[in-house]
Amino acid sequence: MLAALRGQRAFGALDPEALAGIASVMHVKAFSADDWQDDIDGLYLIIRGEVQLINADRRTEVALRPGELFGCGTLASAAGAWSAKVSEDALLARVARTDVDALCAAQPSLQCFIAPEPTVVADAHQAQPGLNLLPKSVRALINRCPITLPPDTSIRDAAKLMSEQHVSSVLIVSQGRLSGVVTDRDLRNRVIAQGTDTSRPLSDIATPQPLTMDVSDPAFEALLLMTRHNMHHVPVTDGDALVGVITATDLNAHHGTSPVFLAGEIYQQHTLEGLAAAAARVGLLQQNLAA
């Protein structure tokens, strides 16, 4: 899977950590020749074989080969309804429709090749920023792979890594299982305020056995969990695998579609790609304000 992503033009320029995160949301499936799909319900990457795209009036056919994309977010989907026919046995990797926008938001460079589907304010749930979380899953809130450390890592080394990686938490993993979490608040309250020796192991200041959520859980439940327990970081699992951490900031980015939040996000950007991604949300803000 990773080799296929590295060889694809849109994904190939991303760093290994980003590729690993994308691979974790892709599902690989084999298709036989002459398999037909009228409703292309995701973004597909052809790993092996050949697929024919056929437009609605059956007059236009386009042959796609390994390394090419089709489905949600591609030019063909923007131009109208297309069907897909497997012309020779194929292996395809699929990203669910609901994850395409999240990928584009997390990796703005992908928007040069994949266009997020336009958001239309159709009802009160979309018009009211506080209800934008209702149709989303926790998976849509994940922006990057988790930073994990063994429990005997020194507090100093952990703090240095958090600074270098620009993250506000690290997960402690022991024998392949999550055993604790350390946040920037822990560093303030349990280290700096108490004068704790920073050579001590990270496990000394960790919150043990933290509450977690599954990627398939509704995103709104993450908001409820953080509110009830006064939490700002929640580890996310996919079965037994750790796949990320969602923060209060991640939730604000989805349910806090407000002028204040968006202005702050634009101000914090230091790259052209980041600025373009933030500015792209101005249209949604205008729709919410007008609704």
Question: Secondary-structure map with pairings?
Answer:
Layout: H1 2-6, H2 9-12, H3 16-24, E1 26-31, E2 36-37, E3 42-55, E4 61-64, E5 69-71, H4 75-79, E6 82-96, H5 97-106, H6 124-127, E7 148-149, H7 155-165, E8 169-174, E9 177-183, H8 184-192, E10 207-208, E11 213-214, H9 219-229, E12 233-238, E13 241-247, H10 248-255, H11 259-267, H12 272-279, H13 282-290
Parallel strand pairs: 7-8, 11-12
Antiparallel strand pairs: 1-6, 2-6, 3-4, 3-5, 3-6, 8-9, 9-10, 12-13
Helix pairs in contact: 11-12
Please characterize this protein's 3D structure.
It is a single chain. This protein has 291 residues and is of the alpha+beta class. It folds into three domains: 2-112, Jelly Rolls; 131-253, CBS-domain (Roll), CATH 3.10.580.10; 257-290. The chain has helices at residues 2-6, 9-12, 16-24, 75-79, 97-106, 124-127, 155-165, 184-192, 219-229, 248-255, 259-267, 272-279, 282-290; strands at residues 26-31, 36-37, 42-55, 61-64, 69-71, 82-96, 148-149, 169-174, 177-183, 207-208, 213-214, 233-238, 241-247. Strands 1, 2, 3, 4, 5 and 6 form a six-stranded antiparallel sheet that branches. It has a four-stranded mixed sheet with strand order 7-8-9-10. It has a three-stranded mixed sheet with strand order 11-12-13. The longest helix has 11 residues, at 155-165. It is elongated and about 75 Å long.
